[in-house]
Design a protein that fits this description.
By secondary structure, the chain is mainly alpha-helical. The chain has one domain. Helices cover 67% and strands 4% of the residues. A hairpin with a 2-residue loop joins strand 4 (293-295) and strand 5. Belongs to the CobD/CbiB family. Keywords: Cell membrane, Cobalamin biosynthesis, Membrane, Transmembrane, Transmembrane helix. It comes from Gracilinema caldarium (strain ATCC 51460 / DSM 7334 / H1) (Treponema caldarium). The chain crosses the membrane at residues 71-91, 187-204, 323-344.
Amino acid sequence: MNKYESLFAIFAALGLDFLIGDPVFALHPVRLLGNLACKAETWSRRLLGCESSRVSNGTREKALPILRLRLAGMLSWFIVTIPAACIPLAGHRLLLKCGFMPVFIWDSLIIWASFAIKDLVQHAREVTLALERDVLENKGGTQPHHGRKAVSLLVGRDPEKLDSEGVARACIESVAESSVDSIASPLLYAVLLGPWAALLYRAINTMDSIFGHKNDRYRYFGWWAARSDDVANFIPARFSALAACLCASFVGGSILEAWNIFITYRKAHESPNSGHPEAAYAGVLNLKLGGPTWYPEGLVDKPWIHPEGKAPDTSDIARALRLLYWNTAVTILVLSLCFLAFAVL
């Protein structure tokens, strides 16, 4: 097999994502992984005897042993991640006997399933259109009805607590974080280890989305999924944030100022990774991000990122998307050059 096949497959997958996006159908690998994760939760909770997690009058009705909950979460994680890694790898090995084209198509489709660039951009643009519609209907400010509905598809926070500025801020923060989850991480793992690693990363990230909540049901059960996602994103988050800072001049910013703001605020987040892309985007776009955030389980008092920056509005979403495109281009260029350098050596 040509040692450049993985790079060809990555570019083919990127092309498919930009042309087609992330179509919704029952057999989509990520949807199958999500369904498997939900079934794995039921099986593991039942196996380890921790099915009950009801809450009565604000307190836990039945105190479940923390260890059993964590073990159940770990078991669910392995039930999902093992096939997520093994099936793409087995398919690749089997198709090697059939020549270049079958394995190229297989690898391209696997990597394509791990990206979600076009869908992210479409959702962010829908938030922009929704906020503009709110203004036209005189529902801007404290009651952006359409904007709240649109941004709820991107973020897990309580949309009813958001005004127009909050909707724009939530959307931009989601774009910044997704520059890692939807682009840099799967791309980095595909380049370093191959298509199977890209889908494995998507499985890890999907389980964090499902289980990584700090509520009564998942505080302990989702511990392993959340920590695994932190580990998987550790290097890509920092790489993507640096790439974003390098793109500052392409969107009217200053590389030096973006770098200074990034260095100052990159740790101003409870997550070990999310603060890096958010601080980079805040620095490049000179925006005030972060701050106290309402989630379904209550208020989380997050620190502000670049509080001296401009309060986000609708126009800043378009700027964030332009930065995302440049960020993606630089990420692809640097990783491709690294791949070629190692291939030559």
